[in-house]
Design goal:
Elements: E1 19-22, H1 28-38, E2 44-48, H2 49-55, H3 57-65, E3 69-76, H4 80-90, E4 97-101, H5 106-122, E5 128-132, H6 148-159, E6 164-166, H7 172-179, E7 184-187, H8 206-212, E8 216-219, H9 221-224, H10 229-238
Parallel strand pairs: 1-2, 1-8, 2-3, 3-4, 4-5, 5-6, 6-7, 7-8
């Protein structure tokens, strides 16, 4: 299946479009206050389980109303029919990217991919599905070959027609070398070189991610907890050029 046949948003061209800021807040008021503070500096936002479960679709509509684009990070993992029907339900919300766990299995991945193709054919733009290869909080299962599992899972997702991958920046060159440029790649756990790892095991810099072939990067606390979030966002974007 070619890239053009897999539903999902256009890959970013400008540096500012590559930055996704994670809204790791407990309620909509705090999240939207940060969005308003960042203003035109940020286009894409990631909404994870904590915030989505607290606020639901209303928050996503509020983001869209501000002209923002939504990456919903729910990491779907269940039986094939349940996952596909979850994708169907989420497609009614203003969501452009959504995550699922690749270890849910090929049958589940194919069911979700078929659902987004059906949506694209019957109702217009569909969600771009991103397969999670390994969480950045986890250590490699085999330290002698630390990215073997990531490369293997990425290949499984690609074969099932999934739009792209979630993977650490350090794995990006290996993924591109093994599987080529077509699947979209989102790298989380991004920090500036002087930043702390916090609760992440695997982190990367903006420059490392882009050199490796990332389309988007996800940055949370280095922006949202900075003294000047707008300045922090501008500095990260500067490093993506």
């Amino acid at each position: 299946m070619t890239e053009a046949q897999i539903p999902g948003p256009d890959r970013p061209r400008a540096a500012r479009e590559r930055l996704i800021v994670a809204l790791d807040f407990q309620d909509a008021d705090a999240a939207l206050a940060m969005v308003d503070r960042l203003g035109e500096e940020v286009t894409w936002y990631k909404v994870g389980m904590e915030l989505f479960y607290a606020e639901g679709g209303q928050l996503l509509h509020a983001l869209r109303g501000r002209g923002k684009r939504v990456f919903l990070d729910l990491k779907l993992h269940d039986i094939p029919n349940t996952m596909a029907m979850a994708v169907r339900s989420l497609s009614r919300l203003p969501v452009e990217l959504c995550t699922l766990h690749i270890p849910a299995g090929s049958e589940a991945l194919r069911a979700c991919a078929a659902e987004v193709r059906r949506i694209a054919e019957t109702r217009g733009p569909a969600i771009g599905l991103l397969g999670v290869t390994r969480l950045t909080s986890l250590s490699p299962p085999d330290v002698s070959d630390p990215w073997r599992d990531v490369v293997s899972l990425a290949g499984q997702a690609m074969a099932c027609g999934i739009y792209g991958w979630i993977a650490p920046a350090a794995a990006a060159p290996l993924l591109r070398g093994a599987h080529g440029p077509c699947p979209a790649l989102v790298c989380p756990g991004i920090r500036l070189p002087e930043g702390a790892k916090q609760d992440q095991v695997t982190v990367g810099t903006p420059e490392e991610a882009v050199r490796g072939g990332a389309d988007w990067i996800v940055v949370g606390r280095p922006v949202t907890r900075a003294e000047d979030p707008s300045a922090a966002a501008r500095e990260i974007v500067r490093r993506l050029v």
